[in-house]
Write a structure and sequence with these properties.
Elements: E1 4-6, E2 12-14, H1 18-23, H2 27-36, H3 39-46, H4 54-63, H5 67-79, H6 90-93, H7 95-105, H8 109-113, H9 129-132, H10 137-140, H11 151-155, H12 160-172, H13 174-177, H14 202-210, E3 216-217, H15 218-221, H16 226-238, E4 243-248, E5 253-259, E6 265-271, E7 285-287, E8 292-296, E9 304-305, E10 312-313
Parallel strand pairs: 3-4
Antiparallel strand pairs: 1-2, 4-5, 5-6, 6-8, 7-8, 9-10
Helix pairs in contact: 3-4, 4-5, 5-7
């Protein structure tokens, strides 16, 4: 007889159910959930702190028109402070939603220009999101008859005519675009709507605060080399120098360590779908709308290889996927 458990939606499921298969990493189970319109189980996966495939679940939900998932991608699109790239998955989501988000980005130059380093002396070519969408929109809307701009015009920032043509076309075809699924109906593209949904700087702020706002960034100083990062952590701790280190994992999940000049060290994790507190004891603290977890390292402090990333942790517990050590 198959044992029966209950999903976070309250639905009884067997060990061989789609939900259970997805939790074990079976991507075909998620595809079947999409085909059957199983929004509840996809939402259950998204809000399961120990599920590693959140980004896939969120993309599927957005494509199916789930409001929460669409609002998340809207917030990423308008709040990410990067140039030369757009948030992953927007073309996959498609529909009126992605077109409207790209329309918003056509007017985003003032925000992104302020983030370009003033002393950019490298050979890196910087392309603003407003220019990147000019290569996306012709694929989404081939009937508009507006071609992509010449790459040299984009590099020279002489693509204003193409931006103007797309603004005019999209604004004059709203009645048609609002019928394309998923739509942007009810989605806010204002930053004040995103404070509890997407915060790209939450982890960095927390680590800097724990390291007394003057700690050395071991990841940056070591150029990402794992052995050098580990040496930086151990040396900084031994010399009572404040430090911090962080690493992106998947989706918008980050882990890190921070130490202060008094010899205190903290393990930290951030997950915008909620962090897991499993196996981390009673001394934990939750911040940023329960998206960030801070765990004081037990003393005496011993650094160990981490389960989740090619770096160190200071914890002894072995059953938390983000912060525990290799056993």
């Amino acid at each position: 007889m198959l044992s029966v458990t209950f999903s976070q939606t309250g639905k009884p499921v067997t060990q061989n159910s789609l939900l259970d298969r997805a939790r074990k990493g079976d991507d075909s189970a998620m595809s079947q959930m999409e085909k059957s319109g199983d929004v509840q189980d996809l939402q259950s996966l998204l809000h399961d702190p120990d599920y590693a495939g959140k980004i896939s679940a969120r993309l599927l939900l957005a494509k199916m028109g789930d409001h929460e998932a669409l609002q998340y991608f809207a917030c990423r699109g308008i709040m990410e402070n990067t140039y030369n790239q757009l948030p992953n998955g927007l073309d996959y989501i498609g529909g009126g939603f992605t077109i409207e988000l790209y329309r918003q980005l056509l007017d985003s130059d003032p925000k992104f220009i302020t983030n370009i380093p003033k002393d950019n002396s490298s050979d890196e070519l910087i392309t603003l999101p407003s220019s990147l969408v000019l290569f996306k929109l012709p694929t989404l809307l081939p009937n508009a008859g507006i071609p992509s701009p010449p790459p040299l015009d984009v590099q020279a920032r002489k693509d204003g005519e193409f931006k103007a043509r797309w603004r005019t076309w999209i604004d004059s075809h709203q009645s048609e675009l609002q019928k394309l699924k998923p739509t942007a109906e009810g989605i806010s593209f204002e930053q004040h709507s995103c404070s509890d949904i997407y915060d790209p700087d939450a982890m960095k702020r927390r680590l800097q605060a724990l390291s007394e706002h003057g700690g050395i960034d071991c990841q940056a100083s070591a150029a990402g080399d794992a052995d050098t990062v580990s040496n930086c952590i151990r040396t900084s701790f031994a010399k009572r120098r404040a430090f911090y280190v962080r690493q992106d994992l998947y989706g918008n999940v980050e882990v890190g360590l921070a130490g202060d000049s008094k010899g205190n060290v903290y393990a930290v994790a951030y997950d915008d779908a909620g962090v897991s507190t499993t196996g981390l004891g009673k001394e934990i603290e939750l911040f940023d709308n329960k998206h960030t977890i801070v765990v004081p390292c037990p003393k005496p402090i011993h650094f160990r290889p981490s389960i989740s990333w090619n770096g160190l942790t200071c914890l002894a517990q072995g059953d938390n996927r983000l912060l525990s050590p290799k056993m």
